[in-house]
Structure to design on (165 residues):
C-alpha cells in the first residue's frame, strides 16, 4: 500500500480542521450535515464523542490509507506522489463511490491527465449549494496535482507506479 505524501496529508489537515482550527476533539455537524471528528473523520463520529489530538492523527492516517487504497484500486494509469495525494484527498472528501462513478476517473484512466484539475473543480457542492471551502479545497487539490514532476509524460517516471490491468 502506497502512503500519501506529506503535502497531501497537510492539505487534508488544512481543509479538515474543526470549527476552532486544528483537529476537532469533540464531534460536530459539518456544513454537509454529517457528524465529524478529528480531521474530517466521519465513519465512527457520533454526537458526544470526544478524542485526543493523537487519536485524531491516528484516524486521519487510517482514513487516508483507505482513500489511497481506493485510488490504487480504481486508477489504471501511472501517478506521481503529488497526483496520488491529490486524488486521495478528493476520495477522502467526496467518497469512494463518487470517485468510482466520476467523469474525473473515466477521463484520467483514458490518459487525460490535463483534464483532472478541471474535473476536480466541478466538485464544489454539498446539499445542492456551492461551498467556498470546497472551492478552495478543489483548487488546492488541483495545485497539488499540477506539482507532478512528470507532468505531460504518459509513461511512469521515478516515484510513479505502473501496473498492468
Amino acid at each position: 500500500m502506497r502512503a500519501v505524501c506529506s503535502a497531501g496529508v497537510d492539505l487534508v489537515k488544512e481543509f479538515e480542521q474543526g470549527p476552532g482550527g486544528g483537529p476537532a476533539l469533540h464531534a460536530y455537524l459539518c456544513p454537509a450535515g454529517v457528524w465529524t471528528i478529528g480531521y474530517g473523520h466521519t465513519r465512527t463520529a457520533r454526537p458526544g464523542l470526544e478524542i485526543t489530538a493523537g487519536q485524531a492523527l491516528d484516524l486521519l492516517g487510517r482514513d487516508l490509507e483507505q482513500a489511497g487504497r481506493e485510488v490504487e484500486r480504481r486508477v489504471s494509469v501511472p501517478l506521481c506522489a503529488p497526483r496520488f495525494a491529490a486524488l486521495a484527498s478528493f476520495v477522502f472528501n467526496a467518497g469512494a463511490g463518487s470517485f468510482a462513478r466520476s467523469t474525473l476517473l473515466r477521463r484520467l484512466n483514458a490518459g487525460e491527465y490535463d483534464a483532472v484539475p478541471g474535473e476536480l473543480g466541478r466538485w464544489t457542492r454539498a446539499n445542492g449549494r456551492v461551498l467556498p471551502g470546497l472551492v478552495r479545497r478543489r483548487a488546492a487539490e488541483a495545485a497539488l496535482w499540477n506539482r507532478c514532476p512528470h507532468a505531460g509524460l504518459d509513461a511512469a517516471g521515478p516515484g510513479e507506479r505502473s501496473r498492468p490491468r
In short: The radius of gyration is 16 Å. Residues 6-145 form a domain with the Lysozyme fold (CATH 1.10.530.40). The longest strand covers residues 24-29. Helices lie at 6-15, 53-74, 81-94, 96-100, 103-109, 116-120, 132-145.
